[in-house]
Amino acid sequence: MEANLQAYEKDMIRELRQAGVLVSDTQSVVGGLGFLFPGHGTHSSTMFDTYLKGSPSAGKLIEMADEVVNERCGFRLTDAVRGNARFPIEHPCVTQPAIFTAALGGALMAEEYSLYPSLLVGHSLGEYAALVCSGVLTAETGLRMVIDRAECVADVPQDRRGAMLAVLLDDDTQIAVVRRAVAAHASRGAISVGVINSPRQVVVSGEHELVISCREELKRSGVSSTLLPIGVGFHSAVLAEAVAPFEERLKQYSWTAPMTPVVSSVFGGYVDSDSLEALPSLLAAQLITQFDFRNSLKVAQDAGVDMYLDCGPRSVLSKLVSSQVNLGDVSVTHLDYGPAHADRTRDVLTALSWVRAGSVAPTDVEVVDAQGEVFEAPGSGVVEETRDGAGVDMDAVCTALREAFAERTGYPLELIEADLDLEADLGIDSVKRVEVVGHVGEVLGVDVKELDFSQALSVSDIAEVLVGSQNVEVADAQGEVFEAPGSGVVEETRDGAGVDMDAVCTALREAFAERTGYPLELIEADLDLEADLGIDSVKRVEVVGHVGEVLGVDVKELDFSQALSVSDIAEVLVGSQNVEVADAQRTEAGASDAQLDSVTIKYEDESSRTAHRYVPQSVRIKSLGAERTILPGDAILVTAADQSVNDAVRKVLEELSLTVIEIPGDASEATIKRLTSSDRLRRVSTVVDLSVLRPHADILSEGDAWWQDVEGQYTTVFSVAQATYETLQSHGEHASWISVTSSGGMSGMDLRTVGDPIGGLTAGFVKTLALELRQMHTRIVDFDVVEPSSLAGALRTELTHKAVNEEIEIGYIEGDRYTVRVLPVPVSSSDRAVRQSLSTDSCVVMSGGSRGIVRECALALAEQRNIPVVLLGRSDPDDPEMKPWLAYSDEDWANARAEVMRQGRTRRPEASVAELSDEYRRITYTRQLVTNLADIESRTDKIHYLVCDVSDPDQVDKAMAQARSRFGKIGAIVHGAGLESFGAIPRKSLKKTAKAIAVKARGFQNLLRATAEDDLSAFISFGSISGRFGMDGQSDYTAGASLLAQMAHIMSRSQSQNPRTIPFITMEWTAWGEVGMATNPEVVSVQANERGMTYMSVADGVRHFIDEIELGTANPEVLYFGELGKNRPAAQVPELTKSGTQLSALMDKSGMIVNRSSFPMVDYAETTESGLQTTRVLWTERDRYLPDHLVKGTATFPGVLHFETQIETALLLAGDQYAGIELDQLDLQTFLKCRDRDRVTIHVDAKRVDEKRIDTELTSVFRTPSGYVLDPRRPQSSATFRLLDEPVSAKEPVLDVEHIFDDVIGEFDIDKYYALTDSFISFGPTFRYLNSAFLVDENIVVGELQIPGIPGLFSDVADPNFRCNPILVDNVGRFALMRQLWRNGQYVVPTQMKNARMYRCPQVRERCFGKMTVLEDYEDGFDMRLDIVDENGYLLCSGEHIRLTAIGSMPEPADILSNTTSPRI
């Protein structure tokens, strides 16, 4: 027992020593414990995933924070911290609540180990967590205050929020230099020394431009500083306008006397009962008040605190404290040991708990600075003896060397980890690495010229090579670069055999850091130079030259094209012998060509039309509505297949004081009636329907399994709705209906996941239910992933919050909340548009008989396009039973209803009156059929009628066989069949309404399966706007129409169900005038007369149908409607101009772009003093083209999309005061790399130079893999645009397309080209439009390409209306890449473009032709001209002068050209 106790004590002492608390093992009583709560600058994307992980108290706190932030800001805090929400982590509404939550979570975690503070010290923002810990505030109140603080700060325009600069002082004299620099700028605006953190660190805060200017002046004076990644000038006058609003908010809260002393950073004294009343004004003033943190530490010292625990992330505050206390008397430790060492937190807390229990006393031990590795603490960190008594301790040497690295780079010390890849993880290019190798050679006395660094990827790898080369002696490892007094001197390794490898490693990193200016802790050896650290190729090439001198290597002929990381470049350098290479100059341009679009952001003038074209889009929504009261009562839970989902939802309902009644999700109609027949039903106020969350058969599976799933799902939702209809109606606004679906996150519209379309059936039905029970709180909530706890949490949110704008349809994608907006998106109005007509060699099969809408569209195909049409209908004109009725005149037939019903009753006594009336209607349809077929026959011989009920698979198979035997092949399907059904849900029968579902759903399935082997050009369904919006009285019709829309979305994206990549389109019609179901007089009376809905003319309907086939087909769901009157759903259809073809505003109140189709590369726009700034977040799940555009294996933002993003921003700034636009010049400066699953924020700043010119600059927020911001505004590209008085139009053909290939001398093997370049510049499926490429002569390449039917570039925009045809230009630009690879073996990328114009955007499936002409060749690239034309030779776009620059080369020119027999080569 005693032995075990001794072993335990040794473990505790070891942990304390490793935590930096002990270096000797004496024991006595413990003194005061102070908790430290950090302020700004401590956030990171992993802050909730490291030391807090596994803590029950912290976990509950984070859950609460998620709920409160979601309520207040519209996103979950954890999602935003990890980069999965609208706001980046740098936004005040993310940063401040996150730091507060993490720091308070650390304190709660410490209390789990019985560690209770005697004093609380908060640094700036950290004061709020300190107040909570002291009992002045509850955790939730504190968080709400912090959100108030963040919102008041965010209300200050971004360009006025200022910046903060951390200044590191080498000695006492430099503070005067800082104050002088600040004073020199103070006359120009707000700037001051905002915070004094320590004798060696102060923070300058103020207006952004003044802070930057001050930084430059300090640099000239030899004072080091780092711009903090905060984006706000706290503790300066720039936030003065936020003080009063914040104070008013704080006055609404109540305060309690502190139970534990709190030291205020505002006035450097205690917060006590007497100061509570003043706290609102004090905390509000904190935003602009300068403070000296040393005063807080003095108060703590006087109170007897001898141990500090940093409760916040990244252990920043502990390092700050360690640098200014006497570590012989006071110990400082922290909780956050980073993602790789989260377990250390528990070990340290256990050991500290043991200390606090009285086993070990810090007052009787020697203490070393646990953070000495990061911050300079003169006189500390030098250890006289190693653990083996053989010289200086390795850890101390490592610390001293890392300290030097940190000073050289400006990186935070904690990020400089020896095992990280220099290029990939830390952005330290190989040139800098070689330079450092040379420096290290001098420091260590090692000759590096003959050493092999080819496998050395990290600092530790390089150190191993250096140390292993020979026994070396080390002087001051920082000696020649900068001084670090008293630290870093290494006398001997642990084996007495020269310098320790870790020390060498650290010294190397120090030299790298000095060249980049990065904080040392970010220089991780395994990072990709460009993708992870943003070190561009220009710098790399520059450094390669320098390294050549250091290492004595001639780099002129070395090939660095495959060198992605420092180790790669080193391998080339070290493995080489003296060779020469041309200077590669630059690789930063952007990976592809760019081109211009001169289209206006105005929509075409369609004012003469009675209906216009619209497309639904998923849009992220931030805000929640007001909270609503859930009254106690009963709730019906229609269960999912997964019991864990049911349990999670049941728990939520019970927490809301609802008693749950379960109904199996697969129950029959009879079972549902039985379960809902009791008196208890009257107390039901809430229905939560999870029934669709169960496995369903594939639509192409054999047999009836899929249809049975559809029928079963409809039975469930219909039966439950009918059973609860009246009781829900009686509860009014306190009634709730929530249906959960899993269609991919937003009704199948998002490309990231392929969901279950059967959810569309439920969605359509519930939209109508909501219109019939208008007071009821209704939601259809769609999820991309069904995870029980997340789903239940989302349902709680939807149940307990009203809609902001009457939203019913809500989606959750990767935790973000979405809804649907229906926006005007007309097809091309250009007179040069090339229509993609259906082939006259095959027939179009149309279901829906020969009446109404289908008849009119069939006639248009036959008469206007000469296309054979096969009509399918249930009515048989040759039915013998019909002949007597067909003989009636129209007048007699109008009076024959009674006679028909009497005869029907005689034949079928059991038939109901409704069924007998249906018989009369069926005969009427047959009479109309006969008349219509006679009319059609008199007009065209291209239309043929076959009897077929599309809901019967055997009949459909037979009809398809007949169509093929008669016309050879089937070219397209138009599924227009449908059954009318009017009446509120309680008055409908399941049997009858299921027939309407069968015609839509089973008809779709039968036609799809019967044509599985046909080469279809399109599969079109006729739906209704009611499927998107709902329509009272038409629940079954809207259910079927909604299912068709979701089928189109999902079939268009599902590779397994649509391997032929056929465009699937659902055309959702408004009411047609003169024809169709809505011409029923009763319907007209309600819709046209009472509600003010405009009916679409037949002429407009037919024109839309033809236009969609020939000019559209990229959007799976398209709506056509005019004025909706009282039917307009405010949540889905935003405010439009009077014409109905334009949005009244391009942005909503938050600055979010409303029409993503027209601006696919802009998320948000915000006006600035100089013009406009737009924001776009890139990530591979959404930007599906990124994995298809790789440079050296890393996803890279294409240069053409640099262009597209900037022209969209220019158009937003220009507004509608122009007729056209063209590119003057585009400069691509740096590759913009996007690591897998990383979210990269880009900004474009646009300003008017004069009336006709707009300048733009694209920058990115550059982060390390761990989420640390290295550069909040990294320049990537810039452009200048000219605004034109006249629109750009192609007047005449510029290329003779018919003879464009007559004089070619060779054809490029495109597949071989892709294979050869795959490891360097890779183009995946979304970038491959080329059909052919031919060499005309050495300087001209021509070829053909075709726009795909389903582009699939974005997950959230199906058919982007690009402004510069980026992917088309990129493909034609590939001619240049092929030519250069064949001619010189060089890899080239565009770096500049001048004088570019966009004439027209081609349609999907349109054939285009391109021509690339070399203007002038250079050693490292060439200039070219690009022309892209349509099949008639008219220009689509042109670029007069494009510069391409070599970034690498093959050993020899590529053999990718065939038939090269001409003597001209």
Detailed description of the structure:
- This protein is of the alpha/beta class.
- The N terminus and C terminus are likely disordered.
- Helix 25 links the parallel strand 20 and strand 21.
- The chain contains 38 helices and 43 strands.
- The relative contact order is 0.08.
- The chain is globular, with a radius of gyration of 36 Å.
- The strands form five sheets. It has a 15-stranded mixed β-sheet, with helices on both faces. A 14-stranded antiparallel β-sheet has the order 27-28-32-33-34-31-39-42-41-40-38-37-35-43.
What's the overall geometry? globular
Q: What summary fits the major beta sheet?
A: 15 strands, mixed
Taking all Cα atoms into account, the compactness measure Rg is 36 Å
Continuous helix count: 38
Question: In percent terms, what proportion of residues is strand?
Answer: 15-25%
Describe how the helices and strands are arranged.
Blueprint: H1 2-18, E1 32-37, H2 56-73, H3 77-81, H4 92-111, E2 119-122, H5 126-134, H6 139-154, E3 163-168, H7 174-186, E4 191-198, E5 201-206, H8 208-220, E6 224-227, H9 240-250, E7 262-263, E8 270-271, H10 279-285, E9 291-292, H11 293-302, E10 305-310, H12 316-322, E11 331-334, H13 343-356, H14 394-409, H15 430-444, H16 459-469, H17 501-516, H18 537-551, H19 566-574, E12 612-620, E13 633-638, H20 643-655, E14 658-663, H21 669-675, E15 684-689, H22 705-731, E16 736-741, H23 759-772, E17 777-783, H24 788-800, E18 809-813, E19 816-824, E20 843-847, H25 852-865, E21 869-873, H26 883-886, H27 890-894, H28 897-907, H29 913-939, E22 943-947, H30 953-967, E23 970-975, H31 990-1010, E24 1018-1024, H32 1025-1029, H33 1035-1053, E25 1064-1069, H34 1081-1090, H35 1098-1111, E26 1117-1121, E27 1164-1167, E28 1171-1178, E29 1189-1191, E30 1194-1195, H36 1199-1214, E31 1220-1228, E32 1240-1250, E33 1253-1263, E34 1269-1284, E35 1306-1308, H37 1310-1317, E36 1321-1323, E37 1330-1337, E38 1340-1346, H38 1366-1383, E39 1386-1398, E40 1407-1418, E41 1421-1430, E42 1435-1449, ...
Helix pairs in contact: 1-13, 2-4, 2-6, 4-5, 4-6, 5-6, 6-9, 7-8, 9-10, 14-17, 15-17, 15-18, 15-19, 16-17, 20-24, 22-23, 22-31, 23-33, 25-35, 28-29, 30-31, 31-33, 36-38
